Amino acid sequence: MVQLVERVGDRVIGGLAHVGGVVMMLARIISTLPKLPRSLGLTVDQMMAMGVNSLPLVAITSAFTGMVASVQTAYQFRDYTPMVLLGSAVGKMVLIELGPVLTALVVAGRVGASIAAELGTMKVTEQIDALETLAVDPIRYLALPRFVSGMIMLPVLVIMADVIAILGGMFVAVFAVGVSAETFTRGLRLYFQFRDVFGGLFKAVIFGMIIAVMGCYQGFNAGWGAGGVGRATTRAVVYSCLLILIFDYVVAELVFR
How far is CA 244 from CA 17, 31, 149, 155, in A? Predict the structure, then answer.
């Protein structure tokens, strides 16, 4: 019993230490924002890696997300709700929830793992120590460009994902459900609110910050050897996905309450 209590206590203390470490890293990154002009080239490179290179995967995911949303909504609406509301339902689902969350989860799996693996490898090969020896701030040189890129590129990816998902939903509505394109788009405009777009993009900014910070934190604190890098990569993806879902609820309470 004593050993169990000690193990639980160690886990709790370790968890609190990680939370404190993440908050401190976020504070250090924010404090280096005035130095961003010195890292513009690195930031553009990261925007390409995080945004442009993720576009094919996001496009495929969002297209089938819109198709599934249209099929499932039409199945539930049939014989009960006018089909003119199909476009409204698909648009609301995509803009508020499916677009930002699924895009963030896909990017967390692809980009978050890449950040943790890259920085973890630099940690175990002592490249980060070499930067400090050369009087180069690793946070400004490595973490800041990834943080800014995540904040910028994830909303861009979400906008493109929303458009592709709605087009996919309309395609299925026209060719599989039998709803005309004019009826679908009329329903899409019927209950459209700018707050839906704002809420989805605000979520995307928060999710981009989460992915970048968690990837950087786990990479900077990776254990030694290939096993340490592998564990850091796994933790970066798992913790990013958990925090995305948690903050999805928090932002929904703030914006859509």
Answer: 20, 24, 17, 14
